[in-house]
Amino acid sequence: MAGNELKLQRLRTNDLVDSAGKQFELGTSWCEDFFGIARTQSETTIKLVFKPLRVEDMPLSDKIVELKLSSVTNRGDRKAYSDGDLGKSQIKSFFIDKLHLTVENNLEDYFAVYKKSNGEFYFYYVPQLLYNNFIKLFQSITPTVSIQRENKAGTKEENNQLQRIYYGAPGTGKSYTIDNLTDETNSVRTTFHPDSDYASFVGAYKPTMEPVPMSYVSDGVAKYAKDSSSHPGTERKIVYKYVPQAFLKAYVAAWSNLDEPFYLVIEEINRGNCAQIFGDLFQLLDRNNHGSSSYAIAADEDIAQFLSDDKKGFAGLTEQQRETISNFLLIKDNGKEVAIGPSILNGTKLLLPPNLHIWATMNTSDQSLFPIDSAFKRRWDWKYVPIKYNKMNWMLEVGGKRYSWGAFLEKINPEIYTLIESADKQMGYFFAKPDKKSNPDLEDNDIISEEVFLNKVLFYFWTDVLKDYDLTKEPFVYEGEDKKKKAFRFTDFFPLPNNPNLNKFVAGLGLTIIGEAPDDTSVTFDSDGDAELNTSQTESVRDYSKYSVNGTGSYTKSDAVVEVVKALVASMPTANANEVLDKIKSFGLSYTLVYNEKDYKYYFDRSTDSRFEKRYAEITLANGDKIYVYRGSTPERIGELVNGLANTGTGISLARIE
After folding, report:
1. Sign (positive/negative) of CA torsion 607, 613, 619, 621?
2. Cα(150)–Cα(160) distance, rounded to whole angstroms?
């Protein structure tokens, strides 16, 4: 036997899922290259001697784990046989029942086997934290260290998965992962939702507009008009035509080129009723060892007619493509061959080709929408996408201070888990996207603003995660003016910017400040008597510039924005509040300038800030509607308003005069 060697492999979902349907498997590099098992050898057993690295695993030291391997499968790997009544192999049982490893916590860890020259095999569980030191140790004593990490995007093993569901918390990058493995030329993408059904997934007859020959009756005989130089002899009419949807588009595309993989991508698969949507196609999800469906199903008459006669079906293929389909043999796992090609070509039978991959995404936070039954689940490979906190260098900006976005998630996700005793509603790195730049020279945004943080992140947190929980501990409580602890309410964080309650909440998380926003992004109130509305920071950088509106007046920023809205209202004498707000929305401002009465009162009734009313100016419209202008501003915001007025043809001008 060869000299000392060490081989490592990252743990996979199937290794840790407590299900007899998900088996532990080893590929050629393990079986033939490392263990030295001849490909022609049938079943074999390898004894592994466990060597613990963690203190808590010491009682398991030198425990024998029998790795009972099957004959080589058609894919070239070997499966570990189950151990009696346990329903799972010894090695898988050891991972789950003895080491207590889980999909949620240990997919970044490794297992390793050290092959000694005397024929013994030492077996290790290697937590990610010990990985580097473990490698260094063995590199010092053995010349051969083989590391099999998680498959890189685009590798053959990853792309060969025929039916896979990528699942995890929202924002972990499930769609991004699939997008990296596919492109627009080899995939069809669809999204399931509560109203999805068989017709919207497969296809259905729909009314469409098409040119049809004009007809008339002459001497009791129906005739068609002939085209001429002045008229084509046709007219556009509504006709009913079979329109293929995502499934049939992918089905035809895959059959048209069996040498290349094609991907049907289903986003949010559990937001739809899978049993209703797939219907009889469910049978096709059983794949044989060659990758095609194990069993064909009879096609509905309308599907058969579309496939055989329509140019978007098989009728539009070349003779060579049609011949390839016609010659297709279904080789069943029992060795029986079925010449099913002609039935596929004429559309009477449906069968998934071996190059058609169906990949889907599933947010674990949405599992209650349409639970997926076990029969459907076991027809898929499952790939857990864990939360990674250092994907990018994004920052969170609150109260003029900047924090690491990853650090916020690392702090808040354990709080979510503690509250609901589940990781399903934790947030991934891509849950929110940056909407501004820390440096104008950057190509991409890297800062998540207060607006996005509050209206997306905290809105989800308070309304979806915390709605059923009574919050009584930090960081979800603060000390009120009466010195009593009070739980934050979502509405306490309005209005923005520089909301003191929002600043308190983020400060209470204990995050490290990694930077500060430029001074001109701090909102100030600069009219007479406004000093109490500013923080000590903003008061110190208060801007005393003056502005004119339509060429007249000398206003502070706070008064200027109010005068602008008054001028806009005067230019729309018959408008109601919503029409005025819609016009202001057309300015494309990055902040909310005006609220209607309903929203204003909603925030006012829930605010604990005694200065709330002073931050707004009330304007009454001609029809009696009231709107409320937020008076806080910055030179940056004034610049946005100037551009918005100019670009939307309001005829209102705002200009700095001193």
Report:
1. positive
2. 15
pTM: 0.58
Q: Which residues of 36-45 are buried (b: 16+ CB within 10 A; e: fewer)?
A: ebeeeeeeee
Q: How far apart are CA 476 and CA 508, in angstroms?
A: 8
Omega before residue 143 within 30° of 0, cis: no
pLDDT digits (tens, 9 = 90+) for 157-174: 455 689 999 999 999 999
- Kindly write down the DSSP assignment for every residue of 114-162, as one continuous string: EE-TTS-EEEEEE-GGGHHHHHHHHHTT-SEEEEE-SPPTT-HHHHT-S
Tell me whether residue 560 is exposed, middle or buried, using C-beta atoms within 10 angstroms of its C-beta: 0 to 12, 13 to 18, 19 or more. Answer: buried
Tens of pLDDT along 455-484?
999 999 998 888 777 777 788 888 877 778
| DSSP three-state, residue 75 | coil
Closest CA to 458 of 486, 500, 489: 489
Q: Which has more pLDDT, 572 or 116?
A: 572
Is 593 within 8 Å of 561 (Cβ atoms)? yes
| CA–CA gap between residue 567 and residue 580 (Å, rounded) | 11
Q: Which residue has the tokens 């690392």?
A: 410
Phi first, then psi: give them for residue 484, nearest 5 degrees: -100, 150
pLDDT, tens only, 215-244: 888 888 888 888 887 788 888 989 899 999
Q: Which of 136, 108, 109 is nearest to 124 (CA)?
A: 109
pLDDT at 439: 76
From the list 559, 538, 540, the residue with the least C-alpha distance to 630 is 559
- Identify any residues that bridge with 218 across adjacent strands, giving them in sequence order: 221
**338 φ, ψ to 5°?**
-125, 125
Residue 306: pLDDT over 90: yes
Query: What pLDDT sits at residue 32?
Result: 82
What is the spatial distance between Cα 404 and Cα 390, in angstroms, rounded to a whole number?
9
Core vs surface per residue 487-521: b (16+ CB within 10 A) or e = ebeeebbbbbbbbebbbbbbbeeebeeeeebeeeb
Span 408-418, pLDDT tens digits: 999 999 988 88
Residue 226: DSSP 8-state? P
597 Rama sector, left if φ>0, alpha if ψ -120 to 50, beta otherwise: alpha
Query: What's phi and psi for 602, nearest 5 deg?
Result: -60, -50
**Looking at 102-116, 284-298, 349-363, which range is the least confident one?**
102-116
The pLDDT value given to residue 567: 94
Q: Which helix (DSSP H) or strand (DSSP E) does residue 600 occupy?
A: helix 597-606
Cα distance between residue 315 and residue 308, in whole Å: 6
CA dihedral (275, 278, 283, 284) in degrees, to 10, reads -150
Count H helices and E strands in the chain, helices first.
Answer: 23, 33
